[in-house]
Amino acid sequence: MSFAQGSRSSLAFGVESTFGVAATTFTKLPIKTHSLDLSKERLQGQDIQSDRMPRVDRHGNRNASGSVEIDLRKGNYDDFLESGMLSSFDSSNEMVVGTTPKFLTLEDRFEDINQFRLFTGMSVSTTSISIAPNQMVETSFELVGKDMAVSGTGKTTSASVTNSPFDSFNGAVYEGGVGSGDIVNLITSIDFSINNSFAPTFVVGSASTPHLEYGRSVIEGTITVYAQDAVFINKFLNETESGIQVSVDDPSGANAYTFYFPRIKYNGASVPLANEQSRTIEMPFVALYDDVEGTQMKLTRST
User: Fold this and answer.
1) N or C: which end of the chain has fewer CB within 10 A?
2) Average pLDDT of span 48-66
3) Bridge-partner residues for 194, per DSSP?
4) What pTM was estimated for this model as a whole?
């Protein structure tokens, strides 16, 4: 008897033409981990019995969800980034926050025991990105979807793009002003997330959702800055709006992705005394709609 091994597992995905209808072409996806699963609500009978023992326990609505953890790189995850921004890259390789959902099919592949879990109607509810020294650009896609099925036959897949992961030292951070602002060598990390609040819309007569609802685009994050002067603290104290642009790349220097937040507001400036080492300022921020750029955030990929 053999047991499924993580080292013999893989994840593939395809883009759906219709919500909840499995994609027809699939590509394998480089991943670190994932937690994709199907859960069901429980319906428990409330009858009072003299022997105190329940008689009824049924399954309710089905809910597919989970996270996919990856090291960001060019090309492999553009469909996930588009799903998370409800938008798509234009002819200039730029993308702004949009209003058009994009749905994916994901196949969790147990290749050593020939079992395959197929998740349909999946959309990226939250994209979280962490950029810091001595790590790859760590990214998490939190997905919500329609349903899951198991099969002994997997989909035919294409190989993924073979670009190297992005890291934190092949890139640059700019802060303040209009456009790129001033380059900053004080920022030791930046973390941000794009949250759409996707959720199922259950109806009578169906165990799975016929569609997903979503809310506002909420983009928030935190930059951690070495404490050199009062410039950043004063931006919080004076409620001064600013902007951030951060670029990441791989060792080739030719595959950069640039995240631009044209209008942000800092909502804190904590300066803890943790030890005898350098002190840092933790600056949580929110990205707001900018009239000039027409978006909260713009993502540009190299051509």
Assistant:
1) N
2) 93
3) 127, 219
4) 0.94
